[in-house]
Amino acid sequence: xxxxxxxxxxxxxxxxxxxxxxxxxxxxxxxxxxxxxxxxxxxxxxxxxxxxxxxxxxxxxxxxxxxxxxxxxxxxxxxxxxxxxxxxxxxxxxxxxxxxxxxxxxxxxxxxxxxxxxxxxxxxxxxxxxxxxxxxxxxxxxxxxxxxxxxxxxxxxxxxxxxxxxxxxxxxxxxxxxxxxxxxxxxxxxxxxxxxxxxxxxxxxxxxxxxxxxxxxxxxxxxxxxxxxxxxxxxxxxxxxxxxxxxxxxxxxxxxxxxxxxxxxxxxxxxxxxxxxxxxxxxxxxxxxxxxxxxxxxxxxxxxxxxxxxxxxxxxxxxxxxxxxxxxxxxxxxxxxxxxxxxxxxxxxxxxxxxxxxxxxxxxxxxxxxxxxxxxxxxxxxxxxxxxxxxxxxxxxxxxxxxxxxxxxxxxxxxxxxxxxxxxxxxxxxxxxxxxxxxxxxxxxxxxxxxxxxxxxxxxxxxxxxxxxxxxxxx
Length: 475
Description:
Distance between the termini: 70 Å
Number of strands: 17
Strand order of the largest sheet: 5-12-11-10-9-6-7-8
Strand content: 5-15%
Structural class: alpha/beta
Shape: globular
Oligomer: single chain
């Protein structure tokens, strides 16, 4: 085979041999693809002179016309360059880069036990029921429903959600005011953009609370004001003193403390919203899971015109579905829908139709009952293991959700050493201080306060993880 003047040698052209063996009807396309990839990958470097069309055709056993056509096409695309009587060369415009697909998804490192909060048990995902819903949808979905959807979401899903949320969470759910979103994160961003457009420059957030809020609102041009909590929920006195007119809350099961807002605090919060014509942004965090008594209804049901309500399937089904909802006051509907349209033209129709069918057929309720039983057992196992291996630990926030707060006795501190030893033992934990918006100074002696998630691992692994953590910090 002909060698190039730059010394690339026979090996450089071997990448084209499989293409030359392709069926006659697809041989030209295969040859162009192979030569293009050889340039992209750096196998053929910039400045490499290619064989003449006659020589390469002879070496590959294909027609000269096929090679000539390939050279002309790749010259037009910029991969090759040629000059009259000067031959064909690999263009200097191409920068070789080997394509790589990196996984940036948040994954827990390989650990003996993972107590990081916020994750459900993904092995409980109802694959059979979900697959059945998919088959049913594909069989019945009208062709036009595969077009651009209503940016609010499919009417079928919004109707199903209105029934579900009214029945399970006690919200005042008008399908016309529900917007299907890709999770609470997008709902938060949408509201941030709308509030900014209305002149709002600051939003109150619970402290401690979700670390995401500051970043999400900052992206929308809105700052966050940390507001303290007490045993009943958000401290209303601080809220009045902050001067904000919008506040983010998790009243059903406050993240991370686990406090359920008292009836009095809920009333006080709504009184504040009415007095300043403000907005309460209710994140129904862990609202589906309550173990020892009936679930607390959503705050939105008490005043739909001053509360924007949002939730998702991230804890009930799987975060990878990227499916949630936002129920807004009438005065915000038009602006929220307009912003949703400009962001993504609406949520994927097939995903919406599948979830609608999943809800309509009762599969969602059955799945929640299954998870409720499993998570209650795991919570009880964790609490018992902490009592056995860390005697004197105060465990709070156990009535609902997928995590607890564990305040360990001072003898297990200081916290920095505790975290180091736990990590060395292969146990992943998160300190409560990670959720604080304002830094709290401690005396450095004790103050080991952890947010421990339990939903994502088996009872046996929970016991083993707590035991390993105790052995690591007491030896």
